[in-house]
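Let's practice the habit of predicting before peeking. Look at the sequence and jot down your guess about where helices and strands might fall. Then scroll down.
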Amino acid sequence: MSTQRPHIDEILTAFLSAQLKNKTGLRRRRIVTAEVQLRRCMETDGHRILTDGDRSVLELEQEISPESAFARTMFADDLLFALGIYVSEPWLLPDRIDRDVQLRFAEALSAQLISWRLIDQWDLSCAILEVRGSIRRAKLEQRARTRTPR
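Done guessing? Here is the structure:
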C-alpha cells in the first residue's frame, strides 16, 4: 500500500488555514502577505534547489500551466529547501514587522513539516539546520538594524 505525498500547494493551504485560525485584521493580513511572498519566491527561484529530473518536470508543467507550477508539482522536501531562499535577500519583506512575521511563518512551517511527518528529519537534518540557521541570521540582522541609529 502506498501513501500519496501531498504537493506544496496542499501543504501550504492546510498550514495557512491553521495559522489564520482566530486571526483578524492586520495580524491576519501580515500572515497572508508572508504566505504570498513564499509562493512568489518558490515560483521565481524554486528551480534553483531542484534536481535535474524535478526541474524537467517543473518545466513541462510550466509549459502547460505556468501559474503556481512549482507549488502544484513539488513536495515537502522541496518546500524545506525553498525556505532557505525565502528567508534571505531579496525575498525578505521590507517592512520590519512584516519581516518578523515572515521569519516566524518560515520557522513554524519548517517545524510543521517535521510534525506532520512530511519530511524525514534525519535524512534532511542538514537542510533543516541550514534553514534554522538562515532564519536565526535574518533575525539577528533585523535586531541589529533596529538598534542602529539612523
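How did you do? Residues 119 and 125 are 10 Å apart (CA to CA).
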